[in-house]
Backbone:
C-alpha cells in the first residue's frame, strides 16, 4: 500500500511538472519569437527578412503615436478597472445578503461574462446604431438628439469602457462574492454588538480580510484590460482618429495593415516589457505572502 501511494505521488508530481513545463512553453515560445521578429525588417511572416537589430525599437519609441497609444491604454485600463471594482464589489455585497431568489440572481449575474465578445460588440453596435439604435432613438425622444457614438473621440472611448465594464464586472463580482464566504460571521456579529454600522464593518472587517483577493483581482484585471484587443477592435477599430487605439491595436495595424512585421513585433514586445515591469514593481511594494500572514 505504501509503495502504491509513493508511485501515485511520483506520477502526480511528474504530471504537475509536465503541465508547468507545457505552460511555460506556450508562454515563452511566442514571446521569444516576437522578440526575434522585432530584430528584423520584413513585410510579412514569409517574406525575406533583413537584420536591423534595435532599429525597430528606436523607430517605434521615437514616434508620438506610440506614446499616445501607450497613454490611451493606461487611461482605458484605469477607467475600466476602477469601474469594475466599484460595481463588482457593490454587486457582490448585495448578492451576499439574504433575499428571495438569491441563487437564481447569483447565477444570472455571471451571464455577461459568458457571452462571446463578438456578441457583446454586435449588441452594442445595434443599440448605438445611428439610424435604428435603441439608445439613439431614446436619446432623440428625450431631446438630446442623435449622439455621434462612434464619431466623437470622447464618446467612443466611453462606449468601449462601458462595454468592457458591462462584460467583465461579473468576474469581479463572483470573485469577491466567493471571498466573502470565507469571512467569519462572528466578526460581523461582534461588530454589531459594538454598534458598528455597515460602512464601519465594510472598511474595518471586509476590506482588510479580503485584501489578498483584491490584490489578485486588480493584478489580473490590469493585465487583461491593458492587453484587451477584441472589444475595442470590434467596436471602433481604434478610431475615431486613433482615439481608442492602444498598443495591441497599434501592433496589429503595424504588422498587418502597414506590412511592418518587425515594427509590430517591437510594439508588442515593448507592451509585454511594460506589463512585466509593472507586475514586478506591484509585487515588490505589495508582497502577497506577507499580507496573507498579517490577515
Residues:
Amino acid at each position: 500500500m505504501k509503495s502504491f501511494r509513493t508511485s501515485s505521488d511520483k506520477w502526480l508530481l511528474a504530471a504537475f511538472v509536465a503541465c508547468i513545463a507545457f505552460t511555460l512553453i506556450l508562454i515563452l515560445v511566442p514571446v521569444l519569437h516576437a522578440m526575434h521578429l522585432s530584430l528584423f525588417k520584413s513585410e510579412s511572416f514569409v517574406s525575406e527578412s533583413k537584420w536591423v537589430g534595435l532599429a525597430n525599437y528606436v523607430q517605434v519609441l521615437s514616434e508620438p503615436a506610440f506614446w499616445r497609444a501607450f497613454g490611451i491604454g493606461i487611461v482605458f485600463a484605469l477607467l475600466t478597472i476602477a469601474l469594475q471594482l466599484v460595481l463588482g464589489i457593490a454587486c457582490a455585497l448585495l448578492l451576499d445578503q439574504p433575499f428571495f431568489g438569491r441563487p437564481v440572481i447569483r447565477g444570472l449575474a455571471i451571464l455577461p461574462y459568458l457571452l462571446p465578445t463578438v456578441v457583446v460588440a454586435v449588441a452594442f453596435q445595434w443599440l448605438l446604431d445611428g439610424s435604428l439604435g435603441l439608445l439613439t432613438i431614446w436619446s432623440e425622444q428625450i431631446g438630446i438628439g442623435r449622439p455621434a457614438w462612434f464619431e466623437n473621440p470622447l464618446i467612443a472611448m466611453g462606449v468601449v469602457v462601458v462595454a468592457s465594464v458591462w462584460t467583465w464586472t461579473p468576474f469581479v463580482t463572483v470573485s469577491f462574492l466567493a471571498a466573502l464566504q470565507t469571512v467569519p460571521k462572528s466578526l460581523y456579529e461582534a461588530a454589531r454588538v459594538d454598534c458598528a454600522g455597515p460602512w464601519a464593518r465594510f472598511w474595518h472587517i471586509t476590506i482588510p480580510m479580503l485584501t489578498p483577493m483584491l490584490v489578485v483581482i486588480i493584478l489580473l484585471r490590469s493585465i487583461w484590460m491593458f492587453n484587451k484587443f477584441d472589444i475595442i477592435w470590434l467596436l471602433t477599430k481604434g478610431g475615431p482618429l486613433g482615439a481608442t487605439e492602444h498598443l495591441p491595436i497599434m501592433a496589429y495595424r503595424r504588422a498587418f495593415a502597414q506590412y511592418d512585421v518587425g515594427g509590430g513585433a517591437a510594439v508588442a514586445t515593448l507592451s509585454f516589457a511594460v506589463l512585466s515591469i509593472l507586475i514586478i514593481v506591484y509585487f515588490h511594494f505589495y508582497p502577497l505572502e506577507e499580507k496573507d500572514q498579517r490577515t
Q: What stands out?
A: The chain has 14 helices and two strands. Strands lie at 40-41, 50-51.
